[in-house]
Amino acid sequence: MSRFSGSDDFTLLPDLAVRTLGGSVIWANDEFFAEKENLVNPHPSAYRPATFGHKGQVYDGWETRRHRGRPGDDSAVVRLGVPGVIRGVVVDTAWFKGNFPPEVSLAALAVEGYPPAEQIAARTDWVTLLDRVKVDGDSRNPFAIADENRWTHVKLTMHPDGGVARLRVHGEGRPDTALLGLGPLDLAALENGALVLDCSNRFYSSPNQMLYPGLAREMGDGWETARRRDDGNDWVRIRLAGPGAIRLAEIDTSCFLGNSPGSAALTGFTSDGTEVELLPRTDLLPDTRHRFALRPAAASVVEVRLDIYPDGGLARLRLYGELSA
């Protein structure tokens, strides 16, 4: 794959991997000098000279240790915030001058469901989108991609080691066709009239933040409870925008890594107070936008209770469906 050049600049397309769209670096085999999560930060990489930590100069990027005869290469797996068709990538080695990788490559996967990161990294069916190619240090290295498939994850490999400041994955979003047509309106959005009626705990932040528009930018943008020291669980009760049928739920734990709930459940309430199970207790992953197709209740629901087990934080809750007549 040759470096991109031409008037149809793919970098004008959205970065499907950026943190603000929900992108996450879910796995790396090594991040000794600098954390893998820096790869998808939205802002440009920064550098302050002579800022040394206990492992050396602090870099705003992902950096692995020197191999010193250790076989193999170093890789990081990124879950795209918006799955889609990848038109090009930018491997940005800003500030990495004597410690950038000589070569890199990129592979992709289309993953269904929410398997653990280790399982995704260990899969053998990764598809190469960018063959092993030379990169320059302290530079933006753009590469066009010619592929029309929908991908959910990419794997950046450094040959053999070094540091990369940012990975930009430019392309066009493509929805999961299995989820299309399941509901055009977010019945739990504040902008549509929904409201939190009550909750078990709001120690760190208000649960109303879960109903805000857009994606959470940081952990403080969501709802987080105190740590429970009993056998109970935390919950929040939400008045919907109006009576309706909920067909699709999105439970977003983005930005909550060590403090996300282990599982969650959704219960609907009709106008006469009858309880309807919408989502049974279901395991959740940290730092993930989960989407679940629901079987709508026979009668319209007017309120929903979200139970999290046992405690923790959520970035956003979306409940898509149709209002009743």
From TrEMBL:
Where in this chain does the record put each Allantoicase domain? 22-172, 193-323
Q: Which domain of life is it from?
A: Bacteria
**Any Pfam family the entry gives:** Allantoicase
Please state the Enzyme Commission number of this protein: 3.5.3.4
Which reaction does this enzyme catalyse, per its entry?
allantoate + H2O = (S)-ureidoglycolate + urea
GO BP terms, alphabetized: allantoin catabolic process; purine nucleobase metabolic process
Q: Which InterPro entries match?
A: Allantoicase, Allantoicase_dom, Galactose-bd-like_sf
Alphabetical UniProt keywords:
Hydrolase, Purine metabolism
GO terms, molecular function:
allantoicase activity
The protein here is known as Probable allantoicase
